[in-house]
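Morning run. Coffee first, then this:
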Amino acid sequence: MITLIPYSDGEHKACEKAPNEIVKQLKNIFSNEYGKYIKEQPTQTADISNIPNSRIYLGGDHSITYHTVKKIATENTALLIFDAHPDVFQQFDKPTHLDYLKFLVEENVVKPENVILIGIRNPHPQEIQYLKSKGITYFPVKGLKLQDTCDIVMERLKEKDLYISIDIDVLDPAHAPGVSYPEPAGLTTRQLLYFLQRVRNLIPIAIDIVEVNPDNDINNITSKTAAKILAEFL
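And here it is:
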């Protein structure tokens, strides 16, 4: 069951259109890269006040991850995040797409040593300071060694209850233009798929795909890419 969460914190309401658009594009995918036929998937729609247990969540902006992780997290949960931004810049009165991770860490929902960030670029210096102070592992795009980094991640997370959060802006805007905060010099779609096809073997307890902004998209390429990513977990 795919759970659609068409929620945003209000700054980029177009992200609320993304779950339905991604599901629409999924209908055009006949098989994933493992050769598995992708049949029509059952879906359910939820809001953040009533998050069901699910293996796949489609947002919405990144604030949904606070609510989904809080719903299913255990002492052994690890959080693997693909994102251009650390999302720990400041803490507002309630979790937003700018600081959801800081809330999860500060509220002890996930242990900082069980969080890994991949793909960040253009972070605020205060965010890097926070990551270092908490001992959160992060891999910027600059200097990223694909296989070596993935080997480290696989070893670190192999005994954990893995939750994967994919902010589509981890991709270079050339590959995913339909985002709210495009950041040049990101991952390619193939690089991201390499990571995901390997960590998929760890059998994650859940994944989410967030921050697709259909209003900023070109030829639906970002929604199509999100659907392709989704198909790899079906």
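The chain has one domain: 2-231. Good start to the day.
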